[in-house]
Structures
1.
Amino acid sequence: MKVLVLGGAGYIGAHAAKALARRGDQPVVFDNLSAGRREFVKWGPLVEADIRDRAALDAAFRAYRPDAVLHFAASIEVGIGEREPVAFWENNVAGSLGVLAAMQRHGCRNIVFSSTCAVYGEPEYLPLDERHARQPINTYGRTKLAVEQALEDAARAGVIDFAALRYFNASGASRDGDIGEEHEPETHLIPNALKAAAGIGGPMQVFGTNFATRDGSCVRDFIHVDDLAVGHLLALDRLAGRRESFACNLGTGQGVTVLEVLDAVGQVVGRPVPRLLAERRQGDAPELYADIGFAREALRFTPRRSSIQEIVQDAWRYHEPRFRSEAA
Ligand SMILES: NC(=O)c1ccc[n+]([C@@H]2O[C@H](COP(=O)([O-])OP(=O)(O)OC[C@H]3O[C@@H](n4cnc5c(N)ncnc54)[C@H](O)[C@@H]3O)[C@@H](O)[C@H]2O)c1
């Protein structure tokens, strides 16, 4: 299968491109490198362009004639979304509509879209299943919901088939340490905790220690990025075989607390994570974790590398040499 990987120079997209190549598919990365890394594109050609550029999309569809699209390209930092909502809607929503229009022009039907558990908003019950109401509480989540709705309308009209994969907390790194998580700014827990334990930067802030959870800190669902990548391959296969659109959670179904993550980081690094206990942040739900029954049944998805120990070990294997050269 030839697959156009939009945002394939980013964290999750690069892992998906690698997984595609490993099983003999042909990824073509399309990325404007606004957040992605050229050195993460190793498993196929790079088209350095923006999804909002209609001519560039047309040229890529004409040149490569992809059988399907994996669509990771987006603005992802929740805080920036609150400060710059129009830019977020422009990139995430207008950009995605341009992608759908290009797919129609070029007769490409199948798309796997990177959605998020943020489309659910405050949980009304746990674990979160795909039937949970979608009431996102921030701009980021609302842009992802808007794209899901556009996909639903296009699928209803018979124009495309889609899989909307609602990731929980993507984490970890490729086992051989060649690609990993490098967001700028980095707001994710594990890379920041590794940095703190390595003695680079300040201590970790733990937001909220009096939630009604087993140790008072928030519970989240961490899924190894390689498991996520496999989820994309399975979603592509289901779309190709069935011509039936679907939305699907990708997590582990197991909640891990923030303090448990810090403990795992301390054990792997061999030094405790320096921490500051801080007030709760507005909008942080006490617990978020997935019901992955549908992923198990429809995709035959099983998380294989997503114990918190494995996730942290793989992330550390990626980051350690980079921190060492940063500190030198
Ligand atoms: N990281 C997570 O935990 C997480 C959780 C849920 C959903 N997601 C979604 O998964 C996707 C990938 O996330 P990530 O963590 O790999 O982010 P990332 O920032 O590492 O990757 C996004 C990639 O898209 C590219 N891009 C952005 N706008 C573009 C545009 N207009 N044209 C072309 N390329 C563009 C960036 O250069 C980058 O390479 C995103 O859509 C994100 O919303 C991520």
Note: The mean pLDDT is 96.
2.
Amino acid sequence: MKKFFKIAVFVLIISCSVVFTGCKRQKDNIEEFGQGLSNYYMDIQYDDNNKSLYAEQTVEYVNNSNALLSEVYFHLYVANFCKDAKNFPVEDMYKAKAYPNGESYASLNIIRVKLNDKDIMPIYEGDDNDFMRIELTDKLEPTQSVEIYIEYSITIPNVSHRFGYTDKGVNLANFYPIACVYDENGWSKNPYHFNGDPFYSDMANYYVNFTCSSDFIGAFTGGAEEVVDGNTKYYTINSLCIREFSAMLSKNFKTITKNDGDVKYTYYYLNDDTPEKALQCAIDSINTFSDLFYPYPYNYYNVVQASFLYGGMEYPMLSLISDEVENYDDYLNVIVHETAHQWWYSLVGSDEYSNPWLDESLTEFSTLLFYNYNDGYNLNYTDMLNAMHENYNLFVSVYQDVLGSVDTSLNNRSISEYNTSPEYTYCVYVKGTLMFDSLYQLVGKNQFIKSLKLYAETYAYQISTPDGLIACFEKATKTNLQNFFNSWLTDKVIMY
Ligand SMILES: [Zn+2]
């Protein structure tokens, strides 16, 4: 995600030479990498009159852990958008912006659940009944699968969020039951939180039929086939190797499309006088990060301008950009940031709830790095970094003056352990970026890029950890970096 935080940036265009290290890796065959993953088959109908969804979903869940599983857990994030949810999605300071027509809530009705074609009663857990536990009849061996059918209906709240509708369109993310991750700590059951991106998911294959009225234009995680029959539009989306599925709908989307390399880029927008610039920014970002880190493995990339209370949000093959980002340089910067998440969150997964810095700080640093390889944009690395230094120092001094102390630790600090949204932003986005800049200066550009190539290569389609990232930097640079990372990641306030 990209939060709004103001950085005074002086306009100075520096010309940069493009130096890429290492030999080029071939683009992955995504069908090959999708073998052995869980499969989601979803039939979804959107009813605009009632602002509701009806869905039938069959999950062929594959046990890709080494453990014997006696249950499978699903997140029900919609439960957090329901009235009186304890893990509610919008903090007080954002409520007026998020709910322009007053607070509005979702409803979720799980109609029927079947395990291997037999009706079962799931067990609901969590503060908001936001987890669904499916007890398995027989223990599930590694690499074996079970089939779980879930029929459900949802009403969508009137909120400018990842999941919600406004008069501009409908954002459908985190709306369907998605399997929790089973990792070395067992089932990960962290709830929704208004800070950051409280998500954590495995790669899976999605086969989705999506129906809506024909006056809507839909943007999805991946390419979509479209058939119109009378007043009804039928979309088919088959996206392999993605961490989650999302759909953005609007009656007002205009589109601009361009093929570059083997990627089809589409920009869905509501208001933009220079849509070709936004589209080119997406192309430049995908190409730059493909060269620097790992070849973008998909054939589609969609940038979608929609109503959203923060700056933007990342999904596989789809970046949601708020239509309320006022300055166009900032707007393009959000596109760069969300596109960097295609590597740090999407390709390389991580537990974003427990260690938000791992994807977010690296994404924000990658955003700055983009400008070192692309002149012609009105932002640059040095000015953005200097502004971050100033902002961070100001944040630390204000917190120390007002509260007497400040906790700027990053590692193993979950998003729920940041007291306020600004505290989260200045630690995870700003301090995290300063850390990666310091490392960039310490090991040098070539070693730094080599390390990130190794990191992407090691964890592509997998789940990374802080130790995994550090190990890749140490291996690539042949340098002991434990002290470096410890000093930045633990609660040692670093002033400049
Ligand atoms: Zn982000």
Note: The longest strand covers residues 52-62.
